[in-house]
Amino acid sequence: MDVQLLTYLFVGGSFALYIGIAIWSRASSTKDFYVAGGGVSPIANGAATAADWMSAASFISMAGIIAFSGYDASVYLMGWTGGYVLLAMLLAPYLRKFGKFTVPDFIGDRYYSNVARTVAVICVIFISFTYVAGQMRGVGIVFARFLEVDVNMGVVIGMAIVFFYAVLGGMKGITYTQVAQYCVLIFAFLVPAVFLSILMTGHVLPQTGFGATVLDAAGNDTGVYLLERLDGIVQDLGFGAYTEGQKSTIDVFFIAAALMCGTAGLPHVIVRFFTVPTVRDARISAGWALLFIALLYTTAPAVGAFARTNLIETVHQTEYEELPGWFYNWENSGLIGWVDKNDDGRVQMSAGAAFKGTPTFAGDRDEVTGSHGQRVVTNEVTDNDAEVYIDRDIIVLANPEIGNLPAWVIALVAAGGVAAALSTAAGLLLVISSAVSHDLLKKTLKPDISEKQELLAARLAAVVAILIAGYFGINPPGFVAQVVAFAFGLAAASFFPVILMGIFYKRMNKEGAIAGMAVGLAFTFSYIVYFKFVSPELNSAENWLFGVSPEGIGTVGMVLNFIVAFAVSRVTAPPPEHIQHIVEDIRVPRGAGGASAH
Amino acid sequence: MREENARAYWAANLKLIFTYLIIWFVVSYGCGILFVDALNNIQFFGFKLGFWFAQQGSIYVFLVLIWMYAFTMNKLDRKFDVHEE
How far, rounded to the nearest angstrom, does the alpha carbon of residue A583 sit from its chain's CA centroid? Predict the structure, then answer.
């Protein structure tokens, strides 16, 4: 069977599975809709959390980023896993004991203030939309690449699928489809990685393979360690060593902290821990979640190292006409571009960009070709030796082709990419809809609506959220890539400190919490806006505060939040007696009933 | 008595969290970022040790920490008789 047919089969089959699960797990109450009835087993919740957490970016882009930036990409690996330690020890068990539906629920009740609740709702909606726009785009791109449908058509199909199980099933539908999506995506990520590892080092486990010695084409051990060889190759081409960093230590430190605390503060992750039956389950569930996530996150750096080695050895100094087929395919999609600067007909790789920006072409291959049959790049050429542009995102998508793996592996990767994007999008959409129907409508504007009406409002809010997300998917704002820093920075500077102090510092009152959130948010927001949108030309180390980039500034915002909140709470009245009792109560596990609205 | 018990339980919990977070900090920010260059002089199989901590080791330690915390807390819950039914 050819790749195209297999891909239709795999992606279509996975969709049928998701829809089947959605019908089986319809939500019939608000409790079902918001927290899946509070009866999800910790292992299932772990898998759902992992799928929720690992987005199109984790699945498609991360290994590529590691392949191209080596050690510097470690902040993402540590940042996006280390946050779970904070979550498991500092937040999840106590929030589960608190037993409400949403993050603004906790903030509004603990700080006995609808102002705090509303600030939290706005943050939730902003953070989640930032994130979801990228996901819908990811669905569209995977469709376009593998099924040869239009990107926009892909977005619409993705919207229809999410619509079906998110609106129908709410959290319950989402949870069980996410479990299925986790299985699809992890299998799709591991299979090519294991193949590559065996091919290059003879190790079945990629995790040990990338610390092993390389095999030559005949399968004999060369006695040279893969990473040593890779360091040598990239340094010969003028890059810094793969295993050593180029970023400043202070910036790496702050980015890692912002990612960790941001992870622990992201509402769509926190809310997953409201779905398990007990406090004990919440603790274990974080363990399962990280185990499932670590399967991908410890494999990705191996894939990055294999792919970089493979790529350079295949492409560098090879005559254009002799290159393997994937090179031409991705050149056709516009993700690879080559300019023959020294006119020798061979592709040279070197440090620096081959030309300015992403490639634009004079025309399709059948219209305009250069002297060797390549597509003609029209960008302004730079004066270094680099001749080829390779988009980072193709590393994972093209890996099966680069490694010459069977057609079904390519089809599997397509299904995995779609699963990763859909599962994250659905989780975010649910958080948005519950923020609107529960926190804004039920808790603030119209407290007297019945449960039936609230459920209807939740479904309607989900529909609207999907439509808006779809709109962003079809008309992506140019700043999607920049705003990811927002999501983590804002979560770290707002939710993480406020929730943490709400649990661990009984004396924290509403004045302190609101002041802290406001200062943390305002600072982080304006710093990012200033360097990303107002004066992007100043966005370099010498202009940054303490040398911290916008990606890491959430950490500073978080520290400010803590300081301001503490100072303000000391000079204002302590929280009322019953609030202090709530705090004492959430600290002990006994008595955790199901999550409830009252 | 009940209040005292809850206080002792909370103190034990805080001590545990504090200990584990020190380990968490040392493996990621310490071994993976601040002292990465020094550790890179040590060879660990085919890895430089600092690089290994940054891309593999820290994640394994995180996992162990979360599981150990869950098990230890379950025991503490019983010891202080605050466990769920």
Answer: 32
Question: Per-residue pLDDT for A133 more than 90?
Answer: no
Q: What are the chain A neighbours of B33 within 8 Å (beta carbons)?
A: 78, 249, 252-253, 256
Averaged pLDDT of chain A: 88
B29 vs A: CB within 8 A: yes
Q: Point out the domain boundary residue: A402, A437, A454.
A: A402
The pLDDT of residue A1 is 67
* Euclidean distance between CA atoms A435 and A34, whole angstroms: 10
* Domain span holding position A350: 313-402
The predicted model gives A397-410 an average pLDDT of: 82
Verify that A441 and A374 share a domain, yes or no.
no
- Report ipTM (2 d.p.): 0.97
Q: Which one of B29, B63, B85 has the shortest CB-CB distance to A256?
A: B29
Last residue of a domain, one of A461, A476, A491: A476
- Residues β-bridged to residue A221: A215
Select from A210, A250, A244 the least CA-distant residue to A73. Answer: A244
**Same domain (yes/no): A278, A413:** yes
Domain of residue A458, CATH code: 1.20.1730.10
Residues A286 and A434 in one domain: yes
Q: What angle do CA B4, B7, B9 make, to 5 degrees?
A: 110
Each residue's pLDDT tens digit, B16-50: 999 999 999 999 999 999 999 999 999 998 999 99
Give the amino acid at B61: V
| Domain range list for chain B | 2-79
Q: Do B20 and A93 touch (CB under 8 A)?
A: no
Span between the terminal Cα atoms of chain A, in Å? 57
Question: Is residue A538 a part of any domain in this protein?
Answer: no
For A411-538, strand residue ranges (E) read none
Sort out which chain B residues have CB atoms less than 8 A from A89's CB and list them: 17, 20-21, 66, 69
Report yes or no on A384 lying in a domain. yes
Mean pLDDT score, A238-264: 91
Contact by Cβ (8 Å): A235, A241: yes
- The tokens 């990606």 sit on which residue? A551
Q: Are both A174 and A305 inside the same structural domain? A: yes
Q: How many CB pairs (< 8 A) connect A and B?
A: 137
Any domain includes A123 = yes
CA nearest to A504 within chain B: B14
